[in-house]
Amino acid sequence: FYFYSASEDFNEEMLRGKRVIVTGASSGIGEQMAYHLARMEAHLLLTARTEARVQKVMERCLELGAASARYISGSMDSPTLPEQLLREAENTWGGLDMLILNHIGQSSVRFFDGDVEHVRQLMEINFISYVAMTTAALPMLKESEGSIVVVSSVAGRTGGPFIAPYSATKFALDGFFSSLRQELIMDKVNVSITLCILGYINTESAVRAVSHIIRSAPAPKDECALEIIRGAALRQREVLYPPLSIRATLLGRSIAPELLDSIVRSNFHRPNTTA
Ligand SMILES: NC(=O)C1=CN([C@@H]2O[C@H](COP(=O)(O)OP(=O)(O)OC[C@H]3O[C@@H](n4cnc5c(N)ncnc54)[C@H](OP(=O)(O)O)[C@@H]3O)[C@@H](O)[C@H]2O)C=CC1
Ligand SMILES: C[C@H](CCC(=O)O)[C@H]1CC[C@H]2[C@@H]3C(=O)C[C@@H]4C[C@H](O)CC[C@]4(C)[C@H]3CC[C@]12C
């Protein structure tokens, strides 16, 4: 079905003039999404903690042709940041068309060490703030019949080693947004939710975190970012990237979970426990 289904036509014109918030936009996949959206002449509101970095990305977006670009720096463990971002969208644009939730907090790749406080903090940044941003954005998204994009991971569908706190936050996203999608459909609210299930991507932070303990090669972040935007513009339920390896993993998980677990384990060397 995947190979023979008519691939819907994506056209970059779909994003021209669209009002888009991108979180985690100062580096990695978020930065690349901002650049693609700028080339497509969208209006952009970018956010991340490091002002110098997110300002630099905003300036590059203006050079690339963004219809407009602004930023607000702040941490997503702040309870006031979601309201501040959505108020900025309301005051500047009078509405919102697409909310791209992409940021993640710092998390080490190592055996779980019993640090429950770290799990709590990471849940706050990687999950609760996504709920808060969505709650604040929904009134405008209902008005515009817009889209919510949730950037998740194959680690939010299968349990890999050394990333228990991070994986828990990604599983939480799947549960919450899959349920919310059902409610929006039942309520005949035309707001799409696109969940992005990503494999290993060559961002600086991911490569720094795992290149010494993982056998597989990462996929390109710019292509990943474009696939996310394409899937969101087509209002797809899910984006799987890299498409074949993620499909194989998810198929393996449902057909032979123990075999998949051993394959994933074989993909990792044991991390240095002091890391
Ligand atoms: N790279 C990969 O292999 C994979 C990535 N993904 C997902 O893709 C998304 C992006 O990952 P990637 O690009 O690699 O990550 P990066 O580390 O490159 O980017 C993370 C972004 O989040 C921001 N950020 C970090 N902490 C906070 C905070 N407390 N509040 C607000 N913003 C914060 C960072 O900016 P700053 O530090 O300035 O705040 C940065 O802009 C994530 O959701 C991740 O789970 C999924 C699977 C694989
Ligand atoms: C090695 C994993 C792929 C296994 C498979 O294909 O079955 C990677 C898939 C998801 C990656 C993690 C992820 O979701 C992003 C995190 C980003 C952080 O900055 C650190 C690295 C990650 C934990 C990253 C590590 C590789 C994966 C588990």
TrEMBL record:
Is Oxidoreductase among the key words of this record?
yes
Record localization: Endoplasmic reticulum membrane
| InterPro entries given in the database record | 11-beta-HSD, NAD(P)-bd_dom_sf, Sc_DH/Rdtase_CS, SDR_fam
**Could you tell me which CDD domains the record lists for this protein?**
11beta-HSD1_like_SDR_c
Q: Per its UniProt entry, what is the enzyme's top EC class, as one word?
A: oxidoreductase
Reaction catalysed by this chain? 3beta,7alpha-dihydroxyandrost-5-en-17-one + NADP(+) = 3beta-hydroxy-5-androstene-7,17-dione + NADPH + H(+); corticosterone + NADP(+) = 11-dehydrocorticosterone + NADPH + H(+); glycoursodeoxycholate + NADP(+) = 7-oxoglycolithocholate + NADPH + H(+); 7-oxocholesterol + NADPH + H(+) = 7beta-hydroxycholesterol + NADP(+)
**Keywords linked to the UniProt accession:** Endoplasmic reticulum, Membrane, Oxidoreductase, Signal, Transmembrane, Transmembrane helix
Membrane topology classification = Single-pass type II membrane protein
Q: Keyword Transmembrane helix on this protein?
A: yes
E.C. number(s) listed in UniProt:
1.1.1.146, 1.1.1.201
* GO terms under biological process: steroid catabolic process
**Domain of life where this protein originates:** Eukaryota
Q: Which GO terms describe its molecular function?
A: 11-beta-hydroxysteroid dehydrogenase (NADP+) activity; 7-beta-hydroxysteroid dehydrogenase (NADP+) activity; steroid binding
Per the record, GO CC terms?
endoplasmic reticulum membrane
Q: Which family does it belong to?
A: Belongs to the short-chain dehydrogenases/reductases (SDR) family.
Name of the molecule in the record? 11-beta-hydroxysteroid dehydrogenase 1
